[in-house]
Amino acid sequence: PKQVRVNSVNPGVTITNLHKRGGMNQEQYEAFIKKSQETHALGRPGKPEEVARTIAFLASDDASFITGATIPVDGGRHAMCPR
Questions:
Q1: Element spanning 8, H or E
Q2: What is the 3-state secondary structure (H, E, C) of 23-81?
Q3: CB of 42 within 8 A of CB of 75?
Q4: Is 14 helix (H, G, I), strand (E, B) or coil?
Q5: Which of 17, 73, 75, 78 would bridge 42 by S-S if both were Cys, CB 3.0 to 4.6 A apart?
Q6: Backbone phi and psi for residue 62, each to the nearest 5 degrees, phi listed first
Q7: Cα–Cα distance between 19 and 29 in angstroms, integer?
Q8: Is residue 8 very low, low, confident or very high in pLDDT (cuts 50, 70, 90)?
Q9: How many CB atoms lie within 10 A of CB 46?
Q10: pLDDT of residue 7
Q11: Half-sphere exposure of residue 69: CA atoms within 13 angstroms, side-chain side
Q12: pLDDT tens readout for residues 20-34
């Protein structure tokens, strides 16, 4: 065994420039953000730094005994909209 840890982070809607440049006009973008507030238990989309902190934690020695985990960083979207 190589003792390699493999984990994943599944972000919800996270506000980035990609969303702003994703082919939506301003009205569509505002509707998208409003809908995201309704579909996330915490009532808002995420911030890139919130996802990044989770990734940094999983890569750190503090997470040395975590492997095979999928961590939703989605403000509760998965809990509200399970598939």
A1: strand 8-11
A2: CCCHHHHHHHHHHHHHHCCCCCCECHHHHHHHHHHHHCHHHCCCCCCEEEECCCHHHHC
A3: yes
A4: strand
A5: 75
A6: -65, -20
A7: 8
A8: very high
A9: 20
A10: 98
A11: 15
A12: 777 888 899 889 889
Two tokens, residue 70: 């999928």
**Distance, C-alpha 72 to centroid of its chain:** 6
Q: What is the pLDDT of residues 48-80, one digit of tens each?
A: 999 999 999 999 999 999 999 999 999 999 888
Residues linked to residue 9 through DSSP beta bridges, in sequence order: 71
CA distance 52 to 75: 14
74: closest CA among 55, 57, 58, 50? Answer: 50
How far apart are the C-alpha atoms of 22 and 74, rounded to whole Å? 20
Look up tokens 């997470």; give the residue. Answer: 63
Q: 63: alpha, beta or left, given left = phi > 0 and alpha = psi -120 to 50?
A: alpha
